């Protein structure tokens, strides 16, 4: 009597688990030359999972009240056993997630896997990226520190540059004329309920698309030939390697390394992501000097500064993001090999340089 | 001993008031600054000197000492709005002592303070006025002291207090470091702040015997503070060791997974 | 190592990986357990101070003792009693009935005397009592 086999047999008679597992895991063949960049999705899932866990734990002690929020976070950091660990994991995790989101996006761009038939995968991914940013923005306010307060004030203020509805929009985002209790209430609700739900639904859709269409073959090597697809068809890789255990073990390895990075920063340099202003309670009457957004918003911050009017800056940002969101509908050729796409790759590199350049400029100005 | 307790209590009250002024508070561009910046050298120099001062860093601006209305060009220097202007030489201790209460008291009772009417040294003689910096033990030096008298007694005082001063400075730095990595240092910081103030009061008495006697008490107090700081520092070290172990473990897991991956390759030849 | 087949090597490595995973889980589990355990506030709350005037003669004063509801009585002038207010049946909080000078549990009708003794109903044992002492105008419980 093998209890494992018994259980599987039982499940097999009920829901046909063996066929399902074979179809989705062992019989699901991936291209033989699949590379490390395809593990980014798994890393993101692991990191988000951890983020949910540490987030729920923080909720145990956090109090979403302007009078008590900072004190509750201070208590988590100082009195609750290992509270500092949970909080730092959540803070460092949020920053690493942005890093991995960028890597995932950049690799998908480089390999042209956003192209037909994967437009929906790309669009849902791009919305997920934006959700990730909004997660960070809303989470930033919750500790109610000087940094929280002023970063949110500045960020919501940018909406004022939109003609006609700008002023209304600022108040709508804040729930009042300035950042206060009402802002904390809505940001909190979004951060712990609204966004996670939307996020889970979208990740589900994203993964569905990935699986339904079949993973793309990396556009490298002799054998690779761009395919023109018309009707729907699962992309098959007849000579491929099984997803499980061949590829899952690679996913697992990279997840381990990503966690090692997370833990290393958490224990050795958590202050990288916690500026001094984050250690002082919010004071609506004193703006600290040199208030700067977090690193992944610096490019936007600097764009707003270099354009002669805030509106133009905002419009430029909107255009850039809109262009990225719509990319698979604009760039429609079947060719995915980077060497055969010199214009795209030049733009790609320029885009990265622009992002890094603007961010550095924003950081040092 | 009683007196020491009292002193601590008074400075704790002052401290409580000061702590409500967060460190970065920037004094605004008041009308005083706007107007004086454009005046002749004698009247504009204080603006620049003040900008680099410890007062500016803590948001103490012109009107906080000189009175007047910093928001109204017309009435800025009207006595009706509490304008005081420049104090006489002899009034300076009272002028500064409105905030620096404790030090004023000990200073007035000291040899320095008693000689005030005979042009004995007052606050700004040693500390300077508009450009006042964070006080350090280096304000006691041969150049400064021998303007009036032999350096010998001053050197004696400096020698008595220097170890304790150094400890204070060192502990303050440790507290700032711990605060930076996320510890709540409020209580220890207040504690140190009040000890520092009481200690600085003490040596404004410029009475070597008394300073010597009471310095020992301060050292004992500081030793307790140091122990608490060391407890924190210990836990920082322990965390790093534990974190290091977990990192190694995770890297190991990653490597083993990669090795498993290799076995699949080998199988396929 | 050379003569181990890839399959044997894999089994060996998988066991190690499982071990690493188990250790990581254990190492992560401990902080989790500690994080969620009640925070020990120390012994500061062992002694509760209540002003004497709060407790009328023949009346009852409810207060919190070590995180649980408790009650102080003054059956006759100058005589004080402290009891747990948690019914020994299923944990409801007993009520003081002034007219009858006894406790009534609203849940299943358990009754207790001012000394905590069971007078009737389902409660199996008497209410726990706590030591009381006087300190000037205050009563000290605990
Ligand atoms: C929360 C964030 C995200 C999660 C959890 C996630 C998860 C995944 C996973 C598990 C895969 C399959 C394996 C892989 O190729 O990595 C995948 C593929 C893909 N993702 Fe994401 N993703 C996220 C965000 C994004 C973003 C921001 C984009 C781009 C804007 C994106 C675009 C794509 C595309 C185009 C594919 C298909 C790749 C292919 O078939 O070769 N995803 N994603
Ligand atoms: S709980 Fe009191 S009688 Fe049942």
From TrEMBL, chain A:
Protein location: Membrane
Domain of life: Bacteria
GO MF annotation list: electron transfer activity; metal ion binding; oxidoreductase activity
Main location: membrane
Protein's GO biological process: respiratory electron transport chain
InterPro entries xrefs: Cyt_b/b6_C, Cyt_b/b6_C_sf, Cyt_b/b6_N, Cytb/b6-like_sf, Cytochrome_b_N_euk/bac, Di-haem_cyt_TM
PROSITE patterns: CYTB_CTER (PS51003), CYTB_NTER (PS51002)
CDD domains in alphabetical order: Cytochrome_b_N
Annotated keywords: Electron transport, Heme, Iron, Membrane, Metal-binding, Respiratory chain, Transmembrane, Transmembrane helix, Transport
Residues annotated as transmembrane: 36-64, 84-110, 122-142, 187-210, 252-274, 311-330, 342-364
A Pfam family the protein falls into: Cytochrom_B_C
Domain Cytochrome b/b6 N-terminal region profile: 7-219
Lipid bilayer topology: Multi-pass membrane protein
A cellular component term, taken from the record's GO annotations: membrane
Ranges for domain Cytochrome b/b6 C-terminal region profile: 233-365
Protein name per UniProt: Ubiquinol-cytochrome c reductase cytochrome b subunit
TrEMBL record, chain B:
GO cellular component, one term: cell envelope
SUPFAM superfamilies: Multiheme cytochromes (SSF48695)
Tetrahaem cytochrome domain segment(s): 54-150
Record's keyword annotation contains Iron: yes
Cellular compartment(s): Cell envelope
Keywords carried by this UniProt record: Electron transport, Heme, Iron, Membrane, Metal-binding, Signal, Transmembrane, Transmembrane helix, Transport
The keyword Transport appears for this protein: yes
Signal sequence range: 1-27
GO terms of molecular function: metal ion binding
Transmembrane region(s): 241-260
Cofactor(s) essential for the protein: heme c
Record's protein name: Cytochrome c3
Species per Swiss-Prot/TrEMBL record: Malonomonas rubra DSM 5091
Automatic annotation (TrEMBL), chain C:
Gene Ontology CC entries for this record: membrane
Keywords noted in UniProt: 2Fe-2S, Disulfide bond, Iron, Iron-sulfur, Membrane, Metal-binding, Transmembrane, Transmembrane helix
Transmembrane region(s): 12-33
Domain Rieske: 47-141
Example of a GO MF term: quinol-cytochrome-c reductase activity
SUPFAM superfamilies: ISP domain (SSF50022)
Cofactor(s) the protein needs: [2Fe-2S] cluster
A family per Pfam: Rieske
Presence of keyword Iron: yes
PANTHER family given in the database record: CYTOCHROME B-C1 COMPLEX SUBUNIT RIESKE, MITOCHONDRIAL
Name this protein carries in UniProt: Cytochrome b6-f complex iron-sulfur subunit
């Amino acid at each position: 009597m093998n209890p494992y086999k018994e259980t599987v047999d039982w499940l097999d008679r009920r829901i046909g688990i063996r066929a399902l597992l074979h179809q989705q895991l062992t019989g699901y063949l991936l291209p033989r030359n699949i590379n490390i960049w395809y593990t980014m999705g798994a890393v993101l899932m692991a990191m988000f999972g951890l983020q949910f866990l540490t987030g729920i734990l923080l909720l145990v002690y956090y109090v979403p009240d302007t009078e008590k929020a900072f004190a509750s976070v201070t208590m988590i950091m100082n009195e609750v056993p290992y509270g500092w660990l949970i909080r730092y994991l959540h803070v460092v995790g949020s920053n690493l997630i942005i890093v991995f989101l960028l890597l995932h996006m950049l690799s998908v761009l480089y390999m042209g896997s956003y192209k037909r038939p994967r437009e929906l995968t790309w669009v849902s991914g791009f919305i997920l990226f934006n959700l990730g940013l909004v997660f960070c923005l809303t989470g930033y306010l919750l500790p109610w520190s000087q940094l929280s307060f002023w970063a949110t004030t500045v960020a919501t203020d940018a909406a004022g540059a939109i003609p006609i509805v700008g002023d209304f929009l600022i108040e709508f985002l804040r729930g009042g004329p300035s950042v206060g209790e009402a802002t904390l209430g809505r940001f909190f609700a979004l951060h712990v309920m609204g966004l996670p739900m939307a996020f889970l639904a979208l990740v589900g859709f994203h993964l569905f698309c990935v699986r339904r269409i079949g993973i793309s073959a990396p556009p490298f090597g002799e054998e690779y030939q761009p395919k023109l697809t018309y009707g729907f068809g699962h992309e098959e890789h007849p000579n491929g390697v099984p997803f499980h255990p061949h590829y899952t073990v690679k996913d697992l390895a990279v997840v381990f390394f990503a966690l090692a990075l997370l833990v290393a920063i958490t224990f050795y340099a958590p202050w990288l992501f916690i500026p001094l202003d984050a250690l002082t309670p919010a004071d609506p009457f004193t703006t600290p000097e040199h208030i700067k957004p977090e690193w992944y918003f610096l490019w936007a911050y600097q764009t707003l500064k270099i354009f002669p009017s805030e509106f133009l800056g905002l419009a430029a940002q909107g255009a850039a993001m809109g262009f990225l969101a719509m990319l698979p509908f604009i760039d429609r050729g079947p060719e995915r090999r980077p060497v055969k796409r010199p214009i795209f790759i030049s733009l790609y590199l320029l885009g990265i340089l622009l992002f890094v350049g603007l961010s550095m400029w924003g950081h040092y100005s | 001993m009683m007196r020491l307790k009292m002193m601590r209590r008074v400075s704790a009250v002052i401290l409580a008031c000061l702590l409500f002024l967060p460190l970065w508070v920037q004094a605004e561009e008041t009308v005083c600054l706007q107007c004086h910046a454009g005046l002749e050298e004698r009247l504009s120099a204080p603006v620049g000197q003040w900008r680099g001062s410890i007062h500016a860093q803590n948001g103490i601006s012109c009107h906080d000492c000189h009175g007047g209305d910093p928001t109204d060009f017309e009435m800025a220097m009207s006595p009706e709005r509490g304008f005081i202007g420049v104090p006489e030489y002899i009034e300076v201790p009272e002028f500064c002592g409105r905030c620096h209460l404790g030090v004023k008291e000990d200073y007035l009772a000291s040899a320095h303070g008693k000689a005030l009417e005979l042009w004995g040294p007052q606050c700004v003689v040693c500390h300077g006025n508009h450009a006042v910096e964070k006080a350090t033990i280096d304000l006691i030096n041969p150049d400064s002291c021998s303007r009036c008298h032999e350096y010998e007694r001053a050197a004696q005082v400096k020698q008595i207090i220097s170890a304790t001063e150094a400890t204070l400075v060192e502990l303050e730095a440790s507290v700032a470091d711990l605060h930076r990595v996320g510890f709540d240092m409020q209580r220890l910081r207040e504690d140190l702040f009040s000890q520092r103030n009481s200690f600085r009061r003490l040596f404004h008495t410029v009475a070597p015997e008394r300073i010597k006697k009471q310095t020992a008490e301060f050292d004992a107090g500081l030793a307790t503070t140091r122990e608490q700081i060391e407890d924190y520092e210990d836990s920082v070290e322990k965390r790093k060791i534990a974190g290091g172990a977990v990192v190694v473990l995770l890297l190991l897991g990653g490597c083993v997974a990669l090795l498993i991956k290799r076995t699949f390759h080998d199988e396929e030849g | 190592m050379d003569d181990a087949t890839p399959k044997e090597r894999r089994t060996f490595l998988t066991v190690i990986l499982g071990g690493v995973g188990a250790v990581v889980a254990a190492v992560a589990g401990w902080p989790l357990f500690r994080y969620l355990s009640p925070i020990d506030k120390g012994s500061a709350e062992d002694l509760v101070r209540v002003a004497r005037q709060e407790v009328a003669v023949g009346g009852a004063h409810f207060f919190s003792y070590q995180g649980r509801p408790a009650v102080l009585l003054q059956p006759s002038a100058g005589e004080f009693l402290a009891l747990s207010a948690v019914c020994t049946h299923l944990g409801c909080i007993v009520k003081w009935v002034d007219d009858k000078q006894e406790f009534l549990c609203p849940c299943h009708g358990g009754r207790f005397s001012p000394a905590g003794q069971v007078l009737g109903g389902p409660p199996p044992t008497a209410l726990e009592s706590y030591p009381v002492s006087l300190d000037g105008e205050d009563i000290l419980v605990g």
